[in-house]
Amino acid sequence: MSAEPDGPEGRLRRFATIWSRAVFPVTSTSLTRPELEEVLLPLARRLSDALHTRGLDAEEGRAVGAALVRAHCTDPEALSSTLDCVDAYLVLYCGRDGDPQDLRARASRLQHAMAAGYAQALRERTLAEQEAISKAALKAQSMVAEALHASEARFRAVFEGAAIGIGIADLDGNILQVNKALLRMFGLSEETIRGRRVTDWTHPEDAPQTWTLYDELVRGEREHYHLEKAFSRTDGTVLWTNLTVSLLRDADGSPQYQLALMEDTTERRLLNLRLRYEATHDALTGLPNRTFFFERLEKALGAGTGQRFGLCYLDLDGFKTVNDSLGHAAGDRLLVEVADRLQACATAPGEMVARLGGDEFVALTTGPGTENEVDELASRIMNAMVAPISVDGRELTVRGSIGIVEGPAGERSPAEVLRSADITMYRAKSAGGNRFELADPEADARVITRHGLTTALPTALDRGEFFIEYQPLVHLGDGSVRGAEALVRWLHPQHGVLGPDRFIPLAEHTGLIVPLGRWVLEQSVRQAREWRERYADAGPLRINVNLSPCQLTHPRLVQDTVEILERTGVDPGVLCLEVTESALIGADDDLLKPLRRLAEMGVDIALDDFGTGYSNLANLRRLPVSVLKLDRSFTQGMQQYPADPVDLKIVEGIVALAHSLDLSVTVEGVETGAQADQLRLLGCDTAQGWYYARPGPPEHLHNLTLTDAT
Question: Model-level pTM greater than 0.90?
Fold first, then answer.
C-alpha cells in the first residue's frame, strides 16, 4: 500500500522527488531521474531521522554526503544544489512537530556535516585516482621496449579521460603536456598553455613552503608533495586546487619529469567559507557571534608583551518589556538597529563588536593603548543609544548598562575576562543602569564569594555547618538573666565562621531561609528545654528567635511552631519571636493573622529594630506585639557623659508609650555601665549588649546567671 500523500512517508517522498530534480541535471550517471530518486529516498530518510535525533548525530550528515559521491554526484554543482534543497525543504517536509528555529539550526549543522562528508569522500576518491594515475605513469615509464606502445596507449587513455587536471613538465619547469580537464579548469587553450613555465604560476595566497617543496622535488630530494594552492585564471578569478606533484624517474632512476595532479576545489572552498560565516556570525544581526568573539578574545589575550585589551559588555535595560509588550518581532528589529549603531562605533583597527545572545553585546579593542581607547569606545556606545529607535511607528528609548574590563594581555583567560565584565555590567545595572562601570577586582571577588556561598548554602544545613550562639537578655531592675537571643552562625569550610549578615540575605534570596529558620527555631527551643531541665533553680529562661519576612509569609509558620513546641514539651510563653519593624510596615490582616494566632497561644512577639523604620506609633495598637526592641542607634548617645538630651527624651517617650500600651521594652547595643544605668532610670525593662556578654555557647549563659550580671 502506498503512503498517504500528506503522511510522513508521503512528505519524505516529496522531498526526495524535489532533491532528485535538483541534482539530476548536474549528475554524471546512467540512471534515469526516477531511478536517482529511489537512490536518494533512503538518504532523505536518514536526514529526516537525524533532524529529530537527540544530540544531532553529525555522523549521519557526513554519511549522506559520502553517499552522494558514491552515487556519482561529483559535480560541484551537485553539492551546491543538494545543500540549497536541504536548506529550503528539509524542515518544511520532514520537520514534524518542534521548534522551527531549533530545527533550522539543526538543519544548518546537518548541511555542514554533509559538506564535510562529501568533501572527504570526494578527496578519498580523488586521491585514489591520483594514485592510480601515478602508478600507471610509473609503470608506463618502466615497461620494456616491446611493450612501450601498449603502455603509452594505456597512459594516454588515463591521461585524457581523467576528471582531474594533469600536467607534465620537465625539471626546468617547462610545461610539456596537459589534459583537457586542466585546460577547462584554467580556461585556456592547449596552444596558450604550452611554453609556459611552472614558476609563472605563483600566487599571493601561496603557503610559505610551496616553492621550497617544489625546489626539493626537481632536485630529486623528495618524490612527491601535496598541498592546497591557488592559481589566477585569465578572467581574474581564483582557481583553488588540491595539488599533488610527483617526480618521474627514468629506467636508471634519474629524475626526468614532474607530474602535477590538480583537483578543482573552488566551489567547495566557497561553500566552506559560507558555512564558516554562518557558524561564526549571528543570523539576526549579522554581527560576529559568541564563537567568533571568543576566538578573537583568546587571540588578543595571547598577544605579546606590551599588548593590552579593552572589553565593553553591554546589556540593554528593560529589553524584556519590549518583547512582552510589542512582541518578539519588534524586539528583533530593535536588536538589529542597536547592532547597526554598535557596528558604527567600532570601526578603528583592532576593534570589533559581537552579539553574545539575547540583548547582550560586546565590543573589543586591542593594542598598546587601550586604557583610554576602551573608555572612549564605551562613551561612543552610550552616545549611540541616545537617539530613539522607531519600531512599528513607536519611538523607543534605548538604555544600556556596560561593564568595562581593561588590562594587559596574557594575565587572564577569556572566561575570567568575560566573567569580570558580566559582574561589572550588573553592578552598573544595579546602580540605576544607563551607565558604564570599570571592573574592580575587589568587587569581583565579593561577587564570586557571594556566588560560592549561595551555591554552598543548600548542602551546608545537611552537613551540619550551622551552629547557634546565645546573647543574654538581662533585666535592668535586678540584673538577672531572663533569657537569650539565638543568633545563627555558619562554620564555612573555607571562610571560617560567618555572621548572619553574610548569609541570611542569600538564604532569603534562595528560599533556604525557611528550612534554616525552622532548624534555628527547633534547636533554640530544645536549648531552652535543656536549660530548664539542667538548671531548674534558675527559673524559666525565655528564648528569642528572629523571623525573616519570608518566614512570615510561609503557610506553615504556625503549624511548624506548634509542632516544635509540642515535640520538645516547651511552654509557648518561653518563646519570643522577633520581627523587624520594616517587615510589618503596611502589613495587612492576612500577614498579621499568623502572628496573632501565635500570640493567642502565648508566644511573645517582639518588634525588632524599632525606630529604624517609619516608627508609626499609631500602628502599634493593631500589631500583636508584646515587646519593643529599641535599635542601638538610640543608645549610642548615652555612652558619653553627659548623655545626649535628645536621645534621653526620645527613649523616655518611647518607654512611656510602650508601657501605656502594656508593652515591655528591650534595648540592644548596651556597651557601658553608664548606658545601663541611664536606661534603668528611664524605665527600660531588659537589655542586651557586650557590656553583659557577647554571643557565645549555651553554657556561658548559665555561668552568667549564677554570677552578678551587673
Answer: no
